[in-house]
Structures are given as C-alpha cells and as structure tokens.
C-alpha cells in the first residue's frame, strides 16, 4: 500500500499526492485522475504498479474534492491554473 504525501509547487503552494512502490524502483509512472477527482481506483492503480516494481505518483488536482456531477467537475477543471 502506498501513502498520501504533501508536495509543493514551484510557487510554494502545497498539494497532496499518493505515492506507491519501492524507493529503488526500475521506473516511474505519473497518474493523473479523471475530472471526478482522485478516486480509490486511482490509488489502486498506483498500488498495482508499485507491486510490479514501479514508483507511481497520483497527483490530486482538486485538493481532496471528488464529485460525480459533471457540471461541478467541469468547474473544477476550469479553476486549475495552467500557467
């Protein structure tokens, strides 16, 4: 099983991520969640890749928020600062 960690943007803004896999991994995979937010299956994929020897990181783009409402998900996507 992996763990939730806190990282920072270059501008110093903290954000959560989920990491799994060995420290001496043979490679790494970055997982970006769907517009619904970081769901359990995103963490499950990281764990599965970790079990295969990869280091996997799921970045939480929505600060822990999840939804099943497409309108809300779209609004959160538009909030992301892409600069």
Write a structural description.
- By secondary structure, the chain is of the alpha+beta class.
- Helices cover 27% and strands 28% of the residues.
- The protein has helices spanning 40-51, 70-79, and strands at 3-8, 14-20, 28-32, 55-59.
- It has a four-stranded mixed sheet.
- The model has no long low-confidence stretch (mean pLDDT 92).
Low-confidence stretches: none
The DSSP helix count reads 2
Characterize the overall form. globular
Helix content: 25-40%
Mean pLDDT over all positions: 92
What structural category do the secondary elements indicate?
A: alpha+beta
Instruction: Trace the largest sheet across and list its strands.
Output: 1-2-4-3
For the largest beta-sheet, the strand count, sense and barrel status come to: 4 strands, mixed
Task: Return the string of H and E elements.
Answer: EEEHEH
Radius of gyration: 13 Å
Count of beta strands: 4
Q: How large a portion of the residues is in β-strands, by DSSP E? A: 25-35%
Note the gap between the termini: 33 Å
Which features does this protein show?
83 residues; alpha+beta; 4-stranded mixed sheet; 2 helices; globular
